[in-house]
Amino acid sequence: MLGELTDKELLSAHARGERHAFAELLSRHNDHLWQTALRTSYTREDAADSLQDALLSAHRTAGSFRAEAEVRSWLHAIVVNACLDRIRRNKTRRAVPLSPETLPEPRDERDEFAELEMSIVVDRALFSLPPDQRTALVAIDLEGYSVSEAAAMLGVPEGTIKSRCARGRQRLQERLEFLRDPGNRK
User: Fold this and answer.
1) In contact, 136 and 153? CB cutoff 8 Å
2) Can you state the angle between helices 21-40 and 7-15, rounded to 10 degrees?
3) Pairwise CA distance, residues 79 & 12, whole Å
4) Rounded to an integer, what distance in angstroms lies between the CA atom of residue 30 and that of residue 86?
5) Closest to 85 (Cα-Cα) out of 126, 54, 123, 124
6) d(CA 180, CA 106)
């Protein structure tokens, strides 16, 4: 029966005390929220801890949801904010040196290992960005949110989102420039 309810109905049911409503809601969005935490955090451990903090916060504050946005967007924003809070608490930014000598060799053939390798290279470049730029890029380019939706989720003006994305894309382009070399492609 819970599976037939919309996300907003599930959240309302949870706020009213329905026992399994929140679990059903999380089962729908768990993969998305986990990927968001991974993309926003520096380590898997921080992502897991941040996701747990975010879900506890969402569980506790479900009654204050104003239904002005989609439940998925609301959960997404809570996860991103929990990740950013953890980064601020850690206060030490782990730097990953990204020079062509330390990066894995570009892929030769299009196979599963080459796809994984490329994903690692791109993730390293993405995680070298400052958290505010990375968060904006993930929201816009990977999650597909509009500039206005991302600005609302992150609590900053639209212009800030645009400039963070532009600076982040420029840095990514510089870090991934070696991929443009025809010798690095088949």
Assistant:
1) no
2) 110
3) 20
4) 20
5) 54
6) 11
**Judging by beta carbons within 10 Å of its beta carbon (0-12, 13-18, 19+), is residue 94 exposed, middle or buried?**
exposed
3 state SS of 5: coil
Whole-number Å distance between alpha carbons of 83 and 117: 25
Tokens 């639209």 -> residue: 158
- Provide the token pair at 138: 């993930």
Residues 6+ away with beta carbon under 8 Å from 162: 147
60-119, pLDDT tens digit by residue?
988 888 777 788 999 999 999 999 999 888 865 555 555 666 666 655 555 677 678 788
Which H or E element spans position 101?
Answer: none
Alpha-carbon distance of 173 to 60, in angstroms, equals 41
Is the separation of the CB atoms in 69 and 147 below 8 Å? Answer: no
